[in-house]
Amino acid sequence: MNKKRIxxxxxxxxxxxxxxxxxxxxxxxxxxxxxxxEEIFSEIKKDPKEGINVFKTEVxxxxxxxxxxxxxxxxxxxxxxxxxxxxxxxIPQNGIISGFxxxxxxxxxxxxxxxxxxxxxDEIADTVSEILQPEGIMVVIEARHLCVEMRNxxxxxxxxxxxxxxxxxxxxxxxERALSMITPKKTITKPQ
Length: 192
Ligand SMILES: [Zn+2]
What we know:
With 192 residues, the chain is α+β, with helices and mostly antiparallel strands. Helix content is 38%, strand content 26%. β2 (64-75) and β3 form a beta hairpin.
């Protein structure tokens, strides 16, 4: 990433909108933006599977859930953040699992790009599937989108929920159990 060039372009971009980048308040902003972008997008060329360790265990757990992995990303249509939590639930094949930090690292790598929530959900499911070859997997993402909330003046807190389901997790019995692990039963209401 050419930081100097990004700094110049940010200055031009702000000027074009109508901000005075020569003013005391904004003179350092383009440099700070360039630094921040370099930090946030530092992993875009890295393979999300890099450095991920798997373990062969004797565990007979049928469903493993990694709940509430925090993330932030940028909407590829408006370059504004969307952010929330990722839940990854899978059925290990032959006891093959991975550590919590591996999942955090996959989520971080795939989210710190220009993304769509639907695509991010699929990419996490595909990457974990490639690494662990689980019998089934379901990834659920709950997120708030600033491009929706800021532009349409919707009340803050509206969440978009997406899911990707593969393999055995498509079977209703597994899916129901996985969902009840993600969402505590007390909040599930059944029709009378
Ligand atoms: Zn958007």
